[in-house]
Amino acid sequence: SLTAGIVGLPNVGKSTLFNAITKAGAEAANYPFATIDPNVGMVEVPDYRLEELTKLVKPKKTVPATFEFTDIAGIVRGASKGEGLGNKFLSHIRQVDAICHVVRCFDDDNITHVEGRVDPLADIDTINLELVLADLESVDKRLARVSKIAKTKDKEAVAELAVLEKIKPVLEEGKSARSIEFTDDELPIVKGLFLLTTKPVLYVANVAEDEIADVENNNYVKQVKEFAATENAEVITVCARAEEEIAELDEDDKKDFLEALGIEESGLDKLIRTAYHLLGLATYFTAGEQEVRAWTFKVGMKAPECAGIIHTDFERGFIRAETVSFIDLKEYGSMSAAKDAGRVRLEGKDYVVQDGDVMLFRFNV
Ligand code: GDP
């Protein structure tokens, strides 16, 4: 499954945030086949629709979708030079599908900053530069090979060469490749390069507890937002320290705590939701008397592939899917009422599943 890696300089609040993730963790009983890796935290994806469906259908059990975060510790200046820990750090980043980059946006004299000052932009730069340098090395290696083949007028090589030559000068300026606008033709080539700085990134601005309700006036956050806009990245604000506490509360206490902080949604919920979308993920539901469940799929997947997420037999023997949107099901109150109103569709193998679809798969065994 897809995972988002948490990175950041030392002492910015990564472990605190990761602790919040593992404390909030998904109910293990629901996911018996989940892997156990201390660096991976699995959380449930918050979704009000799942609660509503549970109220409508009253199943024996409700199972939310899950999302995985990987804790990637150990970034150091000079990582791209391939020294020990640094090398390991880069190979871990290579394996994740998106990057959550935690940046310190809180002042606290008691907590040492590795570089002796709070400066989120310089921090971002320090890490991004290591990734940029690693990419530059990959691009140079690739250029050496591809430029030879391109001389033979090989079409693919010529196209790749053009892409590499578009990327290289940007990296040389110290900028991430994600800041480049690629054409639809170029995108698959870019994907095949497996660069680090094209991975989607989410900057997580870690602010002080007493500033979380008023982040608009936080200058550090403002700077991070301005920077993120230049490279098509997203920003969310959290207070990691508060999240660690929130993660241990039940729903009612959580609401009270959030109210006291002056925010509507916990930073962790925001993080999960944003990372989920960043990866192009969406949710469909199955809603039976036994179980109401949310399933994660990639936007653009067709019905048989989505059925295959539940079981490979569902994909192999796929016939059709009885489909109703969550909104319609909620409006009509039950599957049969939605059917009577003509809101339940019979979708075939070419149907592109939509976020919020409630589906019943028909298949041959
Ligand atoms: P890491 O090295 O990036 O994993 O950072 P840690 O999570 O270990 O945090 C470093 C220190 O900063 C710890 O003492 C945390 O309690 C503290 N810290 C983390 N988040 C916050 C925050 O939002 N506000 C304040 N004041 N301190 C924080």
Could you please describe the fold and organization of this structure?
The protein has 365 residues and is an alpha/beta fold. It has three domains: 194 residues, Rossmann fold, CATH 3.40.50.300; 67 residues, Obg-related GTPase Ych/YyaF, coiled-coil domain (DNA polymerase, domain 1), CATH 1.10.150; 64 residues, Beta-grasp domain (Ubiquitin-like (UB roll), Roll). 43% of the residues lie in helices and 19% in strands. The protein is built from 14 helices and twelve strands. It has a six-stranded mixed β-sheet, sandwiched between helices. Strands 3-9-8 form a three-stranded mixed β-sheet, sandwiched between helices. The protein has a three-stranded antiparallel β-sheet with strand order 11-10-12. Strand 6, helix 7 and strand 7 form a beta-alpha-beta unit. Helix 1 runs parallel beside helix 8 and helix 4 runs antiparallel to helix 5. It starts with a strand and ends with a strand. The relative contact order is 0.14. The mean pLDDT is 91. It binds guanosine-5'-diphosphate. Guanosine-5'-diphosphate binds next to helix 1 and helix 8. One of its GO terms (cellular component) is cytoplasm. It comes from Vagococcus teuberi.
